[in-house]
Amino acid sequence: MVTPLHIGVLALQGAFREHRLALERCGAKVTELRRRQEDTPLGGLEKFDGIVLPGGESTAMGRLLVDRGLLEPLRACIGRGMPVFGTCAGLILLSRELEGPDGTLLEQPHLGVLHCRVRRNAFGRQTDSFETALEVKGVAQALEAVFIRAPLIVSTGPGVECLSFVETGEGMLPVAVRQDNILASSFHPELTDDLRFHAFFLDMCRAWREQGRA
Known about the structure:
CATH class: Alpha Beta
Number of domains: 1
Structural class: alpha/beta
Number of helices: 5
């Protein structure tokens, strides 16, 4: 019998419950992460086959990552090749450069492992939230995407593959990307009944496990 994939979902704040339910529906075992698991450089996170960083408030989540001793262990695990999936605020936490809606560079605790520059709240306020069907390369030709105070990827660096785009006042810009073991989206796939994006991430986790996590 094949052992289910074991995924850690950051549960400091935000839409972690919805991610947990989606992953469980895909057959994964899920542990909610609120603090480091062990007093080691990797914090006990090395037992997971992948990590999910949910949507929420990125500034609060970044500060809690520091306070709970999770920031450096997460960065180390991602550096070792562990798959990670960040949505909305999770995308912000992963990205190397952050800017405000006016383009001003921001400083806040974040992982800085994804070669992207991301603009916070790029689509406006909560009342400007919207849904649309997107083509996501390797995932679906029409994936329902929910945007809530969403960030926008304004530029990408070496090794970043753009998986999906939306039309903006600045042209077509990416809202889903992959960089090796890092998967990220501006939108919330966990807020729909479509499991294909989560299944795509679990395929990444399965491949990493089969490679001996090397």
